[in-house]
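Progress narrative, Year 2. Work on C-type lectin domain-containing protein from Mytilus coruscus advanced from sequence curation to structure prediction during this period.
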Amino acid sequence: MSSCLTNILSHEDINWIGHLTNNHTWVGGNQNGYVYQWECQQYNYQKQISPYSALWASGEPRPDDKAQCVQIWKLETGFGLDDHDYCEISLEEVFNVLKCSTKGGSLRYDKIPVELYKNQTLLKAIARVFNVCFNSGKVPVMWSNGIITPIPKSSTSDPSDPLSYCGIILASVSYKLYCGVLNSHLTYKLDEIDFLCDEQNSYRKWHSTVSHLSTQSTIIETGKLRN
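Result:
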């Protein structure tokens, strides 16, 4: 193995299978079955992936930089990620999002009501579609379409003025279900790694912005009194 890997990675880090080609390109696969190539030049770090350039510009990585090199390398290659990062979307995930969907309401762009998705056969089909979208990064063109419904902002506003209305887009139910599944994946991962700061309350479950608004109002009022 090339020294630019052995000097950075411990034996615990190198628990995957691969080989080093003659042009110093490490070809390996992690435990999730993903194949990648990582180019390096032995003792000469002229050709590197951009995050490594600053760390290795002076040659061998410094001891205090090795941990950061390993972390960046894992992010680039997907090494060490748990099963939740690449697991398929299950029927349970789709069903949990479907349970939170509001029944009734207006028909959407595709004319399919939310009640129809609660059929077990269609639930399996939509889960397969979600997995195709999740793995390929592509979604149906129909999901980019929606019905714009104008909602009056006030009963006293001028009905002939377009600015008196707030546009609400009625997206297809399948699109909203897919967004709900992605949101559950992101929420789980961000909470697991404790990524969000304590001050981030908006768009988070069981977090309220009332205290933030109260603090901001107090600061504004205090500033007015001082002036």
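The CA atoms of residues 48 and 54 lie 10 Å apart. The chain is about 40% helix and 10% strand.
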